């Protein structure tokens, strides 16, 4: 039976569908609203077998020059019932081709690299791409483990620094919306120091407004002054680190250790089962992340499905196009 694909225009219905299938926070309505306010358009579709929901996909669309029309992109999507990933992808691909005339559909699913669907994607027309937006090599904590088990998987130094920083004269707590400007000041200081680019302030305030409870921020305060923050996005199943930063004082006090442990504890208390550190590189930040676990994870990576006869031409220039897109939309920062 051919699966049906239909747009979902109701926020509560959409988020309920994403969460029922253990979807990623980048598939929540609020994330799409933020992207739609910053140079993207968004289409959200439910995939059904008769009356049964088997998948869902929040499709982000980036306009391209004629004759390419657009590039469709699924950030950590789609959602699919186990064993039906390829069916859902086929249905979403056919929908995008018919409804949006996109030159290609690009996906970076929140699936383990060993997923059967990934092993068979090349046979169904998908091609792997090295031009990634979201890094597939990452670290995902299993929050069904006890706090003692989670700490037992940490390095000895990480446990020591958590204890040490917790004894400093710092307050660790949730950041309020009114304190967002402090986060932005620390983030800009961090970006200048580490030499990476960031969005305009309105982008971050839009994330907070559009995601609400699904966008918690935690901070380390020295009196009234914020010295470190960690910003997450969270669905019912997965917490995902978005942004973070520290002042020089925060770095000296090792505030990031207790701050990350607080975020992990808070997400566990919500009943969330996966905590994703958002990518691993061969850098100092990744070395810090490695201290919190004794493993790493590899997700499926980036896959493209050509939807137009012009796709081979487009694919030839895809790395350049992707770099342009990244510059326009900004990468998810550490």
TrEMBL record:
A biological process term (GO) from this entry: cell wall organization
Alphabetical keyword list: Acyltransferase, Cell shape, Cell wall biogenesis/degradation, Peptidoglycan synthesis, Transferase
Superkingdom of the source species: Bacteria
Coiled coil: none
Pfam families recorded: FemAB
GO MF term set: aminoacyltransferase activity
Signal peptide positions (record): none
InterPro entries: Acyl_CoA_acyltransferase, FEMABX, PG_Glycine_Bridge_Synth
This protein's record includes keyword Repeat: no
Family assignment from sequence similarity: Belongs to the FemABX family.
Protein known as: Methicillin resistance protein
């Amino acid at each position: 039976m051919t699966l049906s694909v239909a747009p979902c225009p109701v926020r509560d219905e959409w988020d309920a569908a994403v969460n029922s299938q253990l979807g990623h926070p980048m598939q929540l309505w609020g994330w799409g609203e933020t992207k739609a306010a910053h140079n993207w358009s968004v289409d959200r579709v439910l995939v059904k077998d008769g009356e049964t929901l088997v998948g869902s996909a929040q499709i982000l669309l980036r306009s391209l020059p004629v004759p390419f029309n657009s590039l469709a992109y699924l950030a950590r999507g789609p959602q699919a019932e186990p064993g039906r990933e390829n069916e859902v992808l086929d249905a979403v691909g056919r929908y995008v081709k018919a409804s949006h005339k996109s030159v290609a559909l690009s996906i970076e699913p929140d699936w383990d690299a060993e997923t059967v669907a990934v092993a068979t994607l090349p046979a169904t027309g998908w091609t792997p791409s090295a031009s990634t937006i979201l890094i597939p090599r990452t670290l995902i904590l299993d929050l069904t483990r006890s706090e003692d088990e989670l700490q037992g998987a940490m390095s000895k130094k990480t446990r020591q620094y958590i204890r040490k920083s917790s004894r400093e004269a710092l307050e660790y707590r949730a950041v309020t919306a009114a304190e967002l400007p402090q986060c932005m000041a620390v983030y800009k200081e961090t970006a200048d120091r580490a030499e990476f680019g960031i969005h305009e302030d309105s982008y971050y305030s839009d994330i907070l407004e559009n995601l609400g409870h699904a966008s918690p921020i935690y901070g380390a305060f020295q009196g009234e002054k914020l010295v470190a923050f960690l910003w997450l996005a969270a669905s019912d199943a997965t917490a995902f680190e978005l942004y973070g930063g520290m002042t020089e004082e925060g770095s000296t006090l090792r505030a990031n250790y207790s701050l990350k442990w607080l975020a992990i504890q808070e997400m566990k208390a919500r009943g969330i089962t996966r905590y994703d550190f958002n990518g691993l590189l061969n850098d100092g930040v990744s070395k810090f992340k490695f201290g919190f676990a004794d493993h790493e994870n590899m997700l499926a990576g980036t896959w493209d499905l050509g939807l137009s006869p012009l796709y081979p031409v487009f694919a030839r220039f895809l790395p350049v196009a992707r770099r342009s897109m990244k510059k326009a939309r900004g990468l998810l920062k550490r």
